[in-house]
Amino acid sequence: MKTILRNASLVNEGKQGVSDVLISKQRIEKIAPNIGVDPRQRYMEINAEGKILLPGMIDDQVHFRDPGLRHKASIYSESRAAVAGGITSFMDMPNTIPNTLSLELLEEKYRLASQTSLANYSFFMGISKGNLEEALRIDNERVCGITDDGLYFNDDEGILANYPDFLEQLFRRSESLVALHSEDDAIIHAQTQRYMAQFGKEIPSAFHTKIRTTEACVTATKRVLDLAKKTNVRLHFFHISTGDEAALFEANEQVRAKRITAEACVHHLIFHEEDYAALGDRIKWNPSIKTKSDNERLLKALLENRLDIIATDHAPHTWEEKTGNYFEVKSGGPLVQHALLALIELYLDGKWSLEKLVQKTSHHVAELYRMVDRGYLREGYFADMVLIDLEKETKVDKSQLLYHCQWSPFEGTVFRSSIHQTWVNGALVYDQGRFPSAENGLRMSFEKIR
């Protein structure tokens, strides 16, 4: 059976306009002002008048915890929360148990997702000290890239940005996209020792920003940038958190022309250091939350196309893991269910347009990763779409959270819009609090040349 959305307000490719959308066999068959019906066919018609239709958000950085950490989350639970939040595709990090450091373990994650994910999926291959040859063997058309995010380079020590000799080997040999977490370990260690001398293990949560500083971010990012320019690797920077870092990147709206790209995350756009007083360790992330000025400068860098996309870095922990002293509390938090609504708040506050939001959450993500047939509302593309109601509020209540961990930094927040419906590959997977489709998402495909 085909589906027709009637009179939706499409936001796509820098334009807005009212149109009908016809979905058939996972894809968008037609977009036109008034689509006629074939009386011999069966259709499901949806009145979308007054609502905004966007390409589904594509989140290139999540930690869905499968396998090995299901006490925190699973692909099923977090993909369910994602589609309820208008995220139709995700790319997952390798810091599961075991770490995803072999092609065999990588394919096991794809197998799990094929059985349980409501959203489309891809998984990064992990990179560490001992698996360079294995990581270089990934298939670019079937795997989104290589990353160290969430992993240690050498057993339990350091991230890759702090090992320039190894990094240069990887950069010179890789024909895949490499995505990195960029902070300087030496600066972080020195700051940790400084505040341990003052507070012992009971370092206040607000001092996370003073430990994982702007200097730590900028120092590492400059180091990695220099290597990337030297080797011409296809490099992507995860979760840029400071305005000073954002200023290091070149502005270009044609993201395909860039060899070096970068992203901001929702929490680094929304939260700032003053929020520690009310939220405490709920907003403990790595890199840390910075200042209001950094919020503004990151948004400006997105508008100027210095930063290319927006992600969540969704990283759920149990509530027990978010309590304790500074060294016991784990960094990270759940975001996928309300990330898009938080970004729409910036639109409603007049800080950017819906067209720019769509560019940073869908269009540019698809271009950056060279995705096949996703990221746009186009005839022939997969029907990954989200229908937004700008007239209906969403109050974030614990009872409605879909995360396995059952908490959110947004609890108590009232967003001025709501996710009305979400389609993944033409299937209506979320409908005003219900999950009507039994269809699972698909493994995403990419162009061979990155």
Q: Biggest sheet, open or closed, and with what strands and sense?
A: 8 strands, mixed
Rg on CA atoms, Å:
21 Å
Low-confidence stretches: none
What is the total domain count? 2
Could you say what the CATH topology of the largest domain is called?
A: TIM Barrel
Helix share bin: 25-40%
| Class derived from helix and strand content | alpha/beta
How would you name the CATH homologous superfamily of the largest domain?
Metal-dependent hydrolases
- What is the mean pLDDT? 97
The rounded distance between the terminal residues' Cα atoms is 37 Å
List keywords for this structure.
TIM Barrel; 13 helices; Urease, subunit C, domain 1; 19 strands; 28% helix; six-stranded parallel beta sheet; alpha/beta; globular; 450 residues; 2 domains; eight-stranded mixed beta sheet; single chain
Brief account:
With 450 residues, the protein is α/β, with parallel strands linked by helices. Helices cover 28% and strands 20% of the residues.
Describe the structure.
The structure is a single chain. With 450 residues, this protein is α/β, with parallel strands linked by helices. The protein folds into two domains: 2-53 and 378-395 and 416-431, Roll (Urease, subunit C, domain 1); 56-368, Alpha-Beta Barrel (TIM Barrel), CATH 3.20.20. The chain contains 13 helices and 19 strands. The strands form four sheets. Strands 1, 2, 3, 4, 5, 15, 18 and 19 form an eight-stranded mixed beta sheet that branches. It is globular.
